[in-house]
Amino acid sequence: MAGSYKLDKMQALSMSILYFSLGDIQYTDERGDDLPLDHNPNEWAMDFAYSRKLSDVFALGISGRFIYSNLLGSIDESKPGIAAAADISGMYQKSISNIGDISWGFNISNIGSKISYQDGGEKDFIPTNLRLGGGYNFNLNEYNKLGIYVDYNKLLVPTEDSSSSVSTVAGVFTSFSDAPGGFKEEIHEIIASVGVEYWYDNQFAIRGGYFYEHETKGNRKYFSLGVGLKLNVFGLDVSYLVANGNSPLANTLRFSLSFDFEGLKAENKAAENI
To answer: What is the DSSP code string of 83-99?
Structure first.
């Protein structure tokens, strides 16, 4: 769940809550027999963010995040992991006459503390990530628009880290040059995705995209198809994921529901004027 509020034309506040559950897990012993112990692994995070336009075409945003990760329950003297992190992001967008607009942006997320699931245990990096992307929206005519977007991601954590002595900041910088396979392997760590979006009358959308991850770095490869509907203050988006092989992501169906209360206020004001 996420929401935002505009303080004025130049700045805004936002907040979001994320909850993720892996369902019920039945523990077993080394022979595979059920133990009288089960658990519901889950994680949640809460974000607070502030964004501000620095010019007519460029804006910056910062956010803080609290993370609670309860993956193991109380087995083997484990405990929930707790971490804090911050994000920084920027967005450039400029209209080009009546043709459309061009945009690009960056996001460095999860810059923060390491996480541990045992008292005195080794602390692991949270997934600090760098994302770069850009796109172009074409105004085909009064009612039809077409957008094309490209996105690149790279984890900013060490490729191999057997020591908790490496700091988060040091891990960010070493992540660009520590792959055992050299520069070639560093390139393999970059995740690429491309998407296309068509809008009719700013009310109905059709979307398609492709996500690529190298086979030695996770091998996630999938297409996604989606539609969107926007009516007054209400918005509904649906996507379907078609993954390769036996990926657990295959046949994933996702829904997003949104409300634009500023649009509702504008409609009420227009009705009052009538």
So the answer is: EEEEEEEEEEEEEETTT
